[in-house]
């Protein structure tokens, strides 16, 4: 099939491109052209800026596609632009949303799509805007618009990503363990979670391509292995052979220290991240997120070391300050035991 990907170079979308090519699809990518893929010669590139509606329409107005996969819409206006552009020029639209779009607390455990409502608190803008995007798409389903498939990733790690760890500190995790420096964890670290990796998530998008069972449906696509957040750092420690030091500070206090960095902990990560994937397995036979936490973190470690990843100095300094405060507070608390 002839598939257009809006985006195509991100952590998830580069995996989608690779798997589409492996499946024999013709792939076109639309983006600003600032990053290239290792398989750039195997895809057609359209250079443009989707946020500029006029140039976006101009760039694709003479093209038709069997499927359009939109990885770069984050709000209702973005989705409106995609729908209006391809309503008569595509056979299917696959939209990347997020499990952040679910309202908390959840109504089901593990979480099922049809049991949940959409997020309605503007205070957490990312989740609210993704939910608004979905509300717009769902209002138009079945009203003469092109068929829409919505896929909601959970927290997903992969090559090129910068979102691993409580501070999204990536390689900082490895170097702190190796240097015997404490790592910061929110709460008590026992919130249940399923950690997903990009090659697995990409299977959902590729499996939905041209799949009529997925038309006008919404799915999450996640790893179903049961872990807790502490396991993320403990497994890195297992891989490099050093037991990590983990200190725990409440999410509420972390938000006070850095609202922009830690708000997601209160709105998202403080709730269980275990999802029931029965629906997507029903409609995309063979879908399975099979990369274990150990395998996925080994993939990330190999990337860090092969690419010569560096430590983020600002996040390193922040983690030092917060863990130092914790250690000092712990010493003061010991006085109550004396």
Automatic annotation (TrEMBL):
Gene3D superfamilies: NAD(P)-binding Rossmann-like Domain (3.40.50.720)
Domain annotation NAD-dependent epimerase/dehydratase: ranges: 3-213
A Pfam family matched in the record: Epimerase
Domain of life the protein comes from: Bacteria
PANTHER family the UniProt entry points to: BIFUNCTIONAL POLYMYXIN RESISTANCE PROTEIN ARNA (PTHR43245)
Protein's recorded name: NAD-dependent epimerase/dehydratase family protein
């Amino acid at each position: 099939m002839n598939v257009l990907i809006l985006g195509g170079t991100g952590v998830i979308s580069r995996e989608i491109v690779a798997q589409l090519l492996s499946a024999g699809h013709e792939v076109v990518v639309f983006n600003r052209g600032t990053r290239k893929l290792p398989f750039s010669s195997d895809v057609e590139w359209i250079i443009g800026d989707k946020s500029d509606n006029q140039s976006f329409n101009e760039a694709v107005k003479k093209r038709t596609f069997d499927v359009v996969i939109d990885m770069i819409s984050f709000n209702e206006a973005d989705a409106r632009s995609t729908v209006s552009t391809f309503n008569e020029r595509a056979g299917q639209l696959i939209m990347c949303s997020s499990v952040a779009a679910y309202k908390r607390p959840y109504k089901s455990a593990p979480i099922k799509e049809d049991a949940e409502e959409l997020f309605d608190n503007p205070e957490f803008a990312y989740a609210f805007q993704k939910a608004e995007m979905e509300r717009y798409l769902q209002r138009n389903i079945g009203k003469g618009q092109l068929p829409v498939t919505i896929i909601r990733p959970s927290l997903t790690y992969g090559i090129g990503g910068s979102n691993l760890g409580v501070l999204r500190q990536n390689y900082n995790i490895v170097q702190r363990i190796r240097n015997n420096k404490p790592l910061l964890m929110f709460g008590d670290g026992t919130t249940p979670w399923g950690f997903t990796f990009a090659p697995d998530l990409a299977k959902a998008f590729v499996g939905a391509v041209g799949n009529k069972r997925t038309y006008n449906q919404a799915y999450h696509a996640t790893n179903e292995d049961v872990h807790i957040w502490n396991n993320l750092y403990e497994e890195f420690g297992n891989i490099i052979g050093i037991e990590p030091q983990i200190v725990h500070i409440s999410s509420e206090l972390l938000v006070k220290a850095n609202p922009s960095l830690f708000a997601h902990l209160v709105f998202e990560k403080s709730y269980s991240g275990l999802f029931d994937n029965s629906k997507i397995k029903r409609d995309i036979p063979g879908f399975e997120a099979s990369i274990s936490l150990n395998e996925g973190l080994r993939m990330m470690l190999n990337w860090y070391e092969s690419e010569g990843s560096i430590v983020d100095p600002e996040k390193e300094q922040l983690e030092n300050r917060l863990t130092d405060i914790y250690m000092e507070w712990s010493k003061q608390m010991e006085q109550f035991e004396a």
